[in-house]
Hints:
Layout: H1 8-24, H2 33-37, E1 39-48, E2 51-52, H3 55-58, E3 61-65, E4 70-75, E5 78-88, E6 94-101, E7 109-118, E8 121-128, E9 146-152
Antiparallel strand pairs: 1-2, 1-3, 1-9, 3-4, 4-5, 5-6, 6-7, 7-8, 8-9
Amino acid sequence: xxxxxxxxxxVLLALTLPAAAARAQPSTAAPDDRAISVxxxxxxxxxINGKLVDPELVAMLQVDYRADGSWxxxxxxxSVAEGTSTNHQDGSPKTFEMATLGSEQIKPSRYxxxxxxxGATRLxxxxxxxxxxxxxxxxxxxxxxxLVTLRRxxxx
Length: 156
């Protein structure tokens, strides 16, 4: 009795086709905002407790978001603050928690907030931990809120 011969290439093809087909199916899951946010973002405006931060100062700030959830605030090219954040994109508005790492100028702090991500624009509104999470993208006087508008930086 002759054993049926099956070339190795056909076996590999049979094993890999189902996996390739599964990868080719369109995903119904929402894109991961963390992955979409990776890269440099220019700070467009900052409002704290109803007061706008000097636009000339703001124009020198950028935020560098990394895939692992860490970030750095850059003044010109110098890192002036670093931290981590966790996004929760299943609600409306989307929420986040953020922690700053301490430095000589900044003590470690925690914040909670809301965000939107619309193409090349990102809005963040947050408060120090312990205060009620913002429910709108506003930073009125005595609210403790900070409202930040970011725009994806152009590649140099």
